[in-house]
Each structure stands twice: as C-alpha cells, then as structure tokens.
Amino acid sequence: SRSQDSHPCPMSGDEGDEGGLGFEEGDDDEGGQGGTGGLCQACIAMLIGLALYPGALYFSGWNEQRAVCRQKALFQAEDKSIQLSCSLAAAENGDSVAPKDLGFLSCALDEKTLTNYSNMDVPGLEVLPGLFNAPGLGLKVTTEMVVCKEKCTRSVCNRRLAEEEPKDAGMNDGKVDSFPEAEAETFTESPNSSFPARRLKSGRRRSCTKECVQWGYWLDWSDALVSSDFHDTARAQQACGGTNPLGPVSPALGTSTKYANSFQVKTQGGGWALNEKQTRAIPVDKPVKLTATTNELLPFVKGELPPMEGWDDINTMVIGDQLHTCNLKPPTDKGLGCMRLSAKVSHPEQVALLGKVSVSQKPGRMSEEGWEAPADWLCGGQTVQRVCPTAGVGSSLDVPMESCDVIRTKEELFEVMHGENNMTTWMYRLAGFLLTWLGLCCICQPLTTCVSMAGDCLDGITECIPGVGCIVDEMTDVVTGMVKAVVCAITCMCAFSSFIFVVGVMWVVMRPLVAIPLLIFGFCFCGGAGYLMHTCRKKKEKEAGMGSQQELLDDK
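RE: above sequence
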C-alpha cells in the first residue's frame, strides 16, 4: 500500500494535473500510448499508412508486371540464343554471328591469359619473395589484427513513474547483457534504489532509460583499426594487456580486390574474351596456398607487434592458409597487435557466358549492356545476360538472387534464370503483402490509441479505490488487447483481399489469354457451389413441409 501523502489520488481539480484524469507530465511510455503525444503519433502513423497502403499495392502490381515481362524475355532469349564456339569468334557450327546477336558458350579458360598474382601485388609483402604464385582473374587479400574490443556487460534500467515525488526517484532494474567473449568475467549486482511501495498500474505507461554501468573487454580479430578511447581504460589494459595500436600498419587492414584487365582473359582456344563485367562477376573464392616461413617454435615471432616496417621472413610465419605475425598455436590464443593475412583468387575450371555480341569491339567480344528482348504487350527494355559461376546476390550482372556453379549447357543456364525470376517474384509478393498490411495497421492506429487512452483514463479514475483499481486495470488491459487483436485480424484480411485483387487484375491485363479462362473457370465453380447450396436448401424446406403436413394428418 502507498501513503496518501506521498501519492495523492489524482482528481480533476488538483493542482499540477496537466493531463486530466490519470495523465501527468512525463507519463508517456516509449510507445506513445498515453496523453496527447500518443494521439499525435498515431495521427502521424495514419498519414504514413495513407501513403504506404496505395504505394504497397502499386509495388505489388509492378512486381506482377515485372515477373511476366521477365519470363517472356527469358523465353525469347532461349529461342534466339546461338551456341558459340570456344576457339572461334563464330557459332559452334561454323556460321558467322552478327553484332547484337545473343550468344551462349561454356568453355574452360586459357591459362596463359590469366594474371599470375604474387606477393608483389600486395603492398607490404614485397620482402617475402616466393610467398605465393597463383594465376586467376582476380585476387582478394584480407588483413586483420587482434584488437581490444569493448561491450556493455551490465546496464541499469531507470523507470520513471508518473506519481512519484520527487521526479528523480525511480526504480533500477539491473540487467546483464551476456556475450560469449566475456563469459569468464563476473559482475556484482548493485542494490536497487529505494522507492515508495506502490502498484505499478498498467504496463502501457512505463518508461525506461537504460544506462550502462559496467563494461567488458576482450581480444578479437578486426579488419579495421579500433580506438583505445574506452570507458574504463584501466580495466581494458588489464583485460587485453595494453591499448590498441594507433597505426597505420602495413599491409593495410581490410579487404582489397583487384581484377584482370578487360578482354585480357580468353576462353581456351582464344575465340572469346571476357569483358570487365564478366571478369568481376566471377567469385574470388579459391584460397591461395602460401609457402611456409620460419619461427614456428616461438610463442611470438621476433619483432614489434604489429610490425611497423613491413613483413619479412623474421617476423612472420605461415599457419594453414594464412600468414601470421604471431604463433597462435595453443596455449597462446591471441596477442594484442598480432596480424594475419589471407589471399584468394578466382580461378574457375569452366565459365558459361550469355550476352550480346559486341557491335563496336573486335570480333570475339560481348557487350557489357546485355541483349535486349523484343518489346511485347506492356513489356519493354528487358535485358538478358549472365555469367556462371557467380556468387549470387551482389553480382554486377542484373543482381541475380541465386548463385550458380559450373554450367555446361544452355538448358541448365535458363533453368537457373527461370528459378531466379520465380524466387524474386515470390519474395516481392511477400514484401508487397506485408507492406500492404502495415499500411492498413498504420491507418487504424488512432483507433487502437484511443482505446488505450480510454483504458488509461479508467485506470486513473479507479486506481485509488481499494480492491477496484487492480480489477479495472486488468480488465482494461484485456479489452485493449482484444481490440488490438481484432484490428490486426481485420487489417490482415483486408490487406490480403486487396493484394489478391491487384494481383488478379494485373494477370488479366498482362496475360489475358491465361487469366480470363481461369476467372471464368473460377466463376463457374462458385456458381455451381451456389446452385448446390440453393438446391439443398429447397430440398430441406420441401422435406420440412412434408413433415409438418404428415404431423397434421396424424393429429386428425
């Protein structure tokens, strides 16, 4: 129980009651469900929903158009593509190819045209001759260093209650955020601040401000320099054994990638050369084998950590496929300032290319723009080009949604491309439906907010009545939850129906020869179902009438 002096019952005529019954300044929670602030936010959400709802429907219609147009373009490309020769700038059957023709080939690469990458291509490794020699279309080098990292390990949640006096009195809940790197650390819980005992009213009106009161430190690999501006410098030095190096370091931290020149790499036989887009689309994923250096028995390699004057055979060693400046074998795990370097090349055993034969370039080259499919009903500007193998998302060619490995036939390639189109279509459909639903939920936000405000008002009126306030509080929470659930269900059904309507209309517009027969078929089924229901009802009514007549005859 709480004292009447410390927490007076809020009345409509009391001084300091800024928000009416049950609402006081600073009582809004993080969701904005209390007071005029919450209603204002709900109105803003409604305005956002009024723009989001039609935008989501437009996006859904555009997706259906894109899916149909892309499918048509792929079918046209499959019909018009020409099988190219690997050794000649011509078709596989010996016929010549004209500019703007769509060509396909699947060939091995000419090893003599690949770039022979070595340690001389990595700044800072020039004094390590013979470290590696790897031919490929591209080279990716990743350099990392062991640094001291910081993370909050214990935070205090300061909750501010509406009727508390003074304002700075609150409740502190110690919350520990654990993470694997700091499991060995132990922390002490600070005692909660004293506050007047009281009922916590509705959970809708509880605000919280988190404040970190304890930090944890551990060593970990990083591909970037990390500042030593820690919250607890003494503890960081104790846990990590020092402060992070200031840099710069050589080789530079991070990932760097370089590729062969455009039209440098050719297919086996020299018939066709890869352009810049095709060269960069092939993933750099083959680990480079490094030649071992010395000092494998020392716990740490001689020299400064990290090496400031570059890496050499004295301050480095090879462990697996990585070059290290420290011996990381057990029991030594990590040391502050230790560095490691790994390299990968792109060297596929075979590449599959689909693209437009170049107009302005020399024979045996493909254009970077791609082949444009002929315009069709409401479709135009669809380009087709592909490279395999590729890493999938993030490729520079049409951003494919699916990775592909070695492709040997044209049929395999177009099967992959049709699969990409179907997967993209369904992903966009899901996004369109969810955005449509979200828009309707935002439109209905003022309704749920008004219900929550009404519940808060009832809580404020009855909270000083013994035995009644708690019951009313729970009842308003239940009613508010039920209203939100009903609104959520109704908006979901409305979103689904409007989404399906837009998709159906777009299919009627884009593919009338397919959609209209399906609609007629569906209407026939609906009509048949309605006829059966009507027939069954009349039969039951007839049987009921005959039964009543029989009863009358029996009575007589």
